[in-house]
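User: My collaborator and I are trying to settle a disagreement about how two of our proteins should look. Neither of us wants to argue from intuition anymore, so we agreed to look at predicted structures for both before our next call. Could you fold the first one, then the second, and keep them clearly separated?

Assistant: That sounds like a sensible way to settle it. I'll keep them separate. The first protein:
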Amino acid sequence: MNVKSNDIWLGAGVVTFGIFLLVYAIPVLVSSPSNVRVLFLSPTFWPVIIAWMVIILGTMLIITTLFSPTAEGIGVAAADEMEREEVVFATARLAAAAIIMVGLVLATPILGMVLATGLAFASISAVVTTPRPIAAVIVAVVLPLVLYAFFAHVAGVSVPQGRFMTLP
């Protein structure tokens, strides 16, 4: 099985997982009170958005894999070596992202949701080597603050505060 067919199977698996989320997991496992008047305040709103994004991204993976050019112009040995290097690099990045996510879970009670997610976003941006590091740092600071302001002051949802920093 070549890399192209692996990507197609991965995309199909991602789409299947997204459909599973929409059809079974969200309706059965996420409880939503019937008296929620505003759609975006419903507990099922963001899980549904994420499930649709998973489906869209899986579909995009399949489409880009089907229409991407193959590596026929280079030798087989060079293509295999490049593939091995890419796999090692991708595995290292995936492991780093997993460590960052575990760190986010462990740091949230200590640092608070805003500071921990800002640091996690900046770290993930470094791991994926973003082409715009300044913009990533700005987003890492501004986005958690804006989300905190919305959830704490508009939606009335309690956001975990840390031991070192509390926000109004």
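The second protein, kept apart from the first:
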Amino acid sequence: MEPLAARIRPETLDEVVGQEHLVGPGKPLRVAIEKKHLFSFILWGPPGTGKTTIARIYARALDAELYELSAVSAGKDDIKKIVGEKGTLHFQPKVLFLDEIHRFNKAQQDFLLPYVESGELTLIGATTENPSFEVIAPLLSRCRVFVLEPLSEEALKRIVKRTKLKVKKDALEWLLSYANGDARKALGLLESTESLYGEVTAETLDKALESPHLRYDKKGEEHYDTISAFIKSMRASQPDAALYYLARMVEAGEDPLFIARRMVVFASEDVGLAQPTALVVANAVFRACETIGYPECTINLAHGVAYLARAEKSRASYDALRSAQADVAALGNLPIPKKIRNAPTKLMKDLEYGKDYEKYDKESYLPEKLKGKKYLK
């Protein structure tokens, strides 16, 4: 029998729950599907938010041949095989849904590029990683990027209701909190719970979560729960716990660049000004993982993790940025003081742009409305 998530997967746009900013009336993906507009695009967002569903609905609407590959296991030969197959209909477009496109290395993406460029393949890439960093520029430039959002609790409730399983209120609240916007995560645990215990309660959900039947899934909840525990252990300056969660990810075959990338972010977000060299170390670990790879780069990862966990912590620069962003969002583009504006033309100089500017001025350069504001504390 198919998994529960597959059995209740939407087959039309009207059945899709969530992602209204993309598939709602008049929104870009709905318009493209309704007008049968053939183009390549990338779906970027958290797991369990509808990337595969949208790709299948799109291909079906265009009467296209849909080929689904996972970049984890696919390679150049799989692409050759698809391109070489003759369509069942004359001029029937070929749509390639490439899940986890960020797992394709540069050489594989270079190989894919001419087929996308020529139109032999229409590419739909799916990724949980920022495509700006994971997809080569020539391929990215030929694709539109659509950002998917975590599903709201209301959306998840509607999805759970579709299963027709009896879920009590306290169990539903427990499940929604656990799922954290991921429909696949919610449905996977719901199905396991019902299968193991015959009823869905908060207690049976908790028991099923601890069951050995739920294995580490690099695309699912264990992946995100483990990286969360890893980061929080470093944040709490607990190197032993951080190294333990690192070991779990390594033993599960987690991508070392995924781990190292989180360490680079952590170095600035959580260590920051307290120990600025943390960013240097984290970047060096990332570079080592790029050039060495498994298994040796695990030593570099352990070195970096121990360093980051032991480092003094300061979120001052991170908090300052968020505070400044809040002001930008609330107040918009406030007028920049004239004395620090650029003055490349005579007109600008006549308007007193750059007048009285001094290199080591003590006066605040913030816009007038924000004079005296302190972001970095």
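Some points you might bring to the call about the second protein. The two ends are 58 Å apart (CA to CA). The longest strand covers residues 65-70.
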